[in-house]
Amino acid sequence: MTEQTSSTETPRRIVVAGGGPAAHRFADAMHARGLDGWHVTVLTEEAHLPYDRVALSKALTEKDVDLTLGTASMWDHPSLELKTGERVVKINAEAKTVETAAGNVVEYDELVVATGSNAARLPIPGAEHTHVYRTLEDVWAINEAITGLRQKLGRKVNAVTIGGGLLGLESAAGTEQLGANPIVIDGSQWLMATQLDEGAGQAMGRLIKGKGFEVHGGVFPSEVLSDDDGQVTGVLMADGRVIDADIVIVAIGVRPRDELFRAAEGEEQVFSLGQRGGVVINDYCATEVDGIWAIGEVANYGGMCLGLVAPANTMAEIVADRLHGGDATFPGFDTATKLKLSGVDVASFGDAFAKTEHALEIVYADPARGVYQKIVTTDDAKTLLGGIFVGDASPYMSLRPLLGRELPAEPGAFLSAAGGGEAPETELPDDATLCSCNNVTAGTIRDAINGCGACEGNAPVQELGELKGCTRAGTQCGSCVPMLKKLLETELTKSGVEVSKALCEHIELSRQELFDAIRVLELTSFEEIMAKYGTGAGCDICKPTIANILASQNSAYVLDAGRGTLQDTNDRALANMQKDGTYSVVPRIAGGEITPKKLGVIAAVAEKYNLYTKITGGQRIDMFGARLEQLPEIWKELVDAGFESGQAYGKSLRTVKSCVGSTWCRFGVQDSVAMAIQLELRYRGLRSPHKLKMGVSGCARECAEARGKDVGVIATADGWNLYVGGNGGATPAHAQLLAKDLDDETLIKYIDRYFMYYIRTADRLQRTARWQEELDGGIKHVEDVVVKDTLGIAADLEAAMAKHVDTYIDEWADTLKDPERLRRFRSFVNAPDQKDDSITFVPDERGQMRPATPEEKGKVLIGASIPVRPGSPEPIRNEA
């Protein structure tokens, strides 16, 4: 065992060869345990920060998706160094150095090898014309190839994937999302033969074929055919058939990158290697050479190398623990697998093939539906040994943590497809692993919920997002999140914390329940709603929420009929209050398009009222520094010039950002500006649980950053791709693909449904990204409701949106028509003509004004007889 260092010694040097997920997890584990006395150098041949290979399929269809693991700021630690573009090519164990391809020599005290694996290649003619599916560069090349071929050939591309395992099916599903014809060739008799038995494999094949995949099983390819230019034309099979192909992807497995452990010719072999590759490690991940460790896919334990994230993470944690003086050991490989692609649910775990002596197999199979469920137990039908689920994998989450334990009910009760309903309630023991990716037990989750000391102030964790951040559970593949949420709610209930969905202390209904009640009963006032569903006079939670719901359902003026007193400060003023008590004015500039004449109007208004101007990130112009009583004057000039409220103050649509599109840009394939304007004018004024932003890009170069918006639209040669659930803010999220190659009419129809479904079902102040995350089924559920109309509410959602569009009225234009409404815009109620002289400005260094600081304000006396100290900025009064 390596002795732990102390901070008084010279830092011990750890070198990590490799920069994949295992290397990242090791660096993160060292960082979490403390780097006092250590210096960690990670050498990676790739140009990227370590990224999530589990989510590689996202990069196949979304080239700019960010798969970076953890936070980039971790690498700012002075004892943690990441060197990209540095491939380790040689280990000199005696000198304790490694050499990189660039010729650099790096010394170490401890060496952790995490070089991972390479994609296996086909030893057949024409293999040089194929693609593999392993790195970001690999999937980007596939994306470019399919996109280019589609434009060149003018038809759908035939994309052949050789390999019917996890990686192969993931690859094929990605090509299908790119608009290609997905074709799978697999030498086995059924798909996913490593994880599924024959019954499950046959069910899987039926489901995949039903989704439009072409599957050729039981025959191996013998040659990849191509023309004189090297363009692939087909795949010659061993039985003589030729399968048409335009691109071929090989995904037949991986091979450990163990070349660092192989002796050069004439040298003695020091390291033991497995029969099928990989360096042999002991139960604490050490090789035979002192000070050299191996983790991840390059490590051979018990005769196996496995390309799964859970064991790699476990190995990384073990080495970090050992280096800090611990005694952790590797428990063996967790081979549990869960896959969801193209709407097909698949899961396999434990002794799925019932190899244990006297094991029982409890099976339900429905070939017609493509459903197969199997539970493997000991011969007394009590202890769970494993299982396989295809078509309906809902029992997996309940059963997976119980592996090796006694089942709480008869095995058949867990076969949901057989009509047994939901799986029985399960009380997980503390030592049961809930998150296998990060090896987090139910006990660790309970400790965090009840206050474990790991979080600031030993505070109990009562929010799902906070629980994930604190424990890491659910942060990798995400399949355990439903169980995590269930455990959180159970523990809170046990500890006396009521798991309530009540809007606030005055209203017991959730926002969704209240929204539906108001809609069905057609309630129109706060008083009606409180009389039926509330108590008391309301609060700063229920008042603006009810105002928001009423505005969402009725496009009436938001400050009429007593609703003005319900609104937040910004909504009451129809403007954003700033730090000094002034307001900003943001006219709508739909799609970012504006004429020179209208630009001149904004310039004239800003000069007249001495307003600070700033172009916003949403392609509008923001004018700051207006006093409350000035707002009507400013807006009258803007409305007369044809402007309307940009609603920068409301929980509503803010902007639809667009690139210049096909009208001007030589790369544009659709008119993104016209579409952005159409969308902004359609959804303007739409009140929602939180602010909404949209983006429209005219090509795949994505200049409008549409995937960072609540709704993003990206042009394709065949129409529009629709992305939903993107957010910026403190916890940014990329939007997810909902539908592709849509015509204008279908695109707008789907957006109508999406926005209305979100408005009706989201929680108070919940962004679209968080809303989608918490929906049971996530983006698949959204697809079912919005695209497939599985709930049968599409027509109702569309009608609700049509009502909004038909009844929209600009709030500021409406305000200016009514003297009573204008009475709201006074700084002093009892002195309507008096201005607020406490508001002062000073010139900034860039030629505009800014709010005066408290010190600068102190220099401005009521009587102007005392001059400001020489050299200080001269205050400017906003005397429009």
Key terms:
28% helix; 24 helices; 880 residues; globular; alpha/beta; 39 strands
Description:
- By secondary structure, the protein is of the alpha/beta class.
- It is built from 24 helices and 39 strands.
- Strand 24 and strand 25 form a beta hairpin.
- It starts with 11 loop residues before the first strand and ends with a strand.
- The model is unreliable at 1-8 and 860-880 (pLDDT under 50).
Portion in helices: 25-40%
Rg over C-alpha atoms, rounded to the nearest angstrom: 31 Å
Sum up the overall morphology in one term: globular
Distance between the termini: 77 Å
Assembly classification = single chain
Number of helices: 24
Strand order of the largest sheet: 3-2-1-7-19
* Biggest sheet details: 5 strands, parallel
Beta-strand level of the residues, as a percent range?
A: 15-25%
Low-confidence segments: 1-8, 860-880
Mean pLDDT score, rounded? 86
How many E-type strands? 39
Structural class of the secondary elements?
Answer: alpha/beta
Layout of helices and strands, plus pairs?
Layout: E1 12-17, H1 21-33, E2 38-44, H2 56-61, E3 80-84, E4 88-92, E5 97-100, E6 105-107, E7 110-113, E8 117-119, E9 131-132, H3 136-153, E10 158-162, H4 166-177, E11 181-186, H5 198-210, E12 214-217, E13 221-226, E14 232-237, E15 242-244, E16 247-250, E17 254-256, E18 279-280, E19 292-294, E20 299-300, H6 309-323, E21 337-341, E22 344-350, E23 360-366, E24 371-377, E25 384-390, H7 396-399, E26 433-435, E27 440-441, H8 442-450, H9 464-471, H10 481-494, H11 511-521, H12 526-533, H13 542-553, H14 569-573, E28 576-577, E29 583-585, H15 596-608, E30 612-615, E31 621-626, H16 631-640, E32 653-658, H17 672-683, E33 692-697, E34 711-716, E35 719-724, E36 736-742, H18 744-761, H19 768-774, H20 779-786, H21 794-807, H22 811-816, H23 819-822, E37 840-843, E38 849-851, H24 854-858, E39 876-877
Parallel strand pairs: 1-2, 1-7, 2-3, 7-19, 9-16, 10-11, 10-16, 11-12, 18-20, 32-33, 33-34
Antiparallel strand pairs: 4-5, 5-6, 8-17, 13-14, 14-15, 21-22, 22-25, 23-24, 24-25, 26-27, 28-29, 29-31, 30-31, 34-35, 35-36, 37-38, 37-39
Helix pairs in contact: 1-6, 8-10, 11-13, 18-21
